[in-house]
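Quick entry, no commentary yet.
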Amino acid sequence: VLQTPLVTIPIDFRFYMPDPKMTEWRKKRDLLKKQGVPPKDRPPKPKPNSEYPTKQLLALDMIQAFQRHFPDINVTGILADALYGDAHFMDGASSVFSGTQVVSQLRWNQMVIYKNKEVNLKTYFDSYLGPGVKKTLVIRGGKEQKVTILSARLK
């Protein structure tokens, strides 16, 4: 999805098909884990099959295709959900647009830049924001959930 200050436009999509061998391996691994079988006694993870690209590879391919087809559009950021938070995707997506920032789920141990100083994210939230704002939100199905809201503008 391309988002501008004026419009949001869907620009590409891909269909994901999981690798059947990987799916079978995960099911078996999870079952053996539940049974308490140590990792060394479980079957090894199968090698990736290029006929079944991962969701991360499909997303990188879409980003690269967009850059090839629309080289004059200035991309200032890429937002990806937590599934895409691995280093390969983050670095790959950033490099497509010459170092564009890629944002995914933050982790407590990440370093961020606040007022030109590098700070640990947990330290930032503990030191600079205080206890946060407590709210009750209505989530799916009408269920109420108590949450604490904190936000920050960080690099």
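second:
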Amino acid sequence: MWIEGKVIERNDWSDKLFSLKIKVDIGNFIAGQFIKLSRVVNDKRIGRAYSLVNPPGTDYIEVLAVAVDDGLLSPNLQALASGDVIDVATKATGFMTLDELPKDDHKGKHLWFLATGTAVGPFISMMATAEPWRNYQKVVLVYGVREAQDLAYLEQLRAFEIQYPSQFELVLLVTREPVDGALSCRIPDGLLNGEIEALAGINISAKESQVMICGNPGMITDAQQVLKDRGLAKNLRRAPGQITVEKYW
């Protein structure tokens, strides 16, 4: 179930927010899936799931995490440095992937990613593949955090703006401090008052949009309700819709 990986890089975005690159071979996976990391702490094995930030085809995995003060594993992970080893599950899993979205007449033209905090990771993995850019006229990432220092991978996101200038729209929300160019509201509130769509330059609709939501449960519940009130429905294999969700804890 577990194979040994070696940390090749740690990036500290803030005092609690960090990412790890780990040299390990987990085989093929689909962008949007997650992997379990594990360590033995006080003679007890602790394992937790983390979404993969890297796209398929790399010879390493990358995860984004927050060190929780009373967490059983995350503080231990934050203490890792290059050369340290970590146990990694042999296979990634998860169903919040682009191939689970509706096809053909149900696909729509615009793909929206709504993320809070570390939940931006799987969307970065997806955007680093060709699939969203090949299948949708517009890709919008709505990325909400508390403070500016929590905006991980911002340089990479700006690179997507340069690479796909007519396709990609980045909407940032920072709730606890003013940041130039960023909204100061929660994602559900920004959807409700129209600020997010105004900044993106397009509207969300049942006919033209697919919306993938990943993040804290409160944001997911409230954002889904706003979208359902507009006529969007949850996407199910037996009944194609417009809303795909993954709770992040």
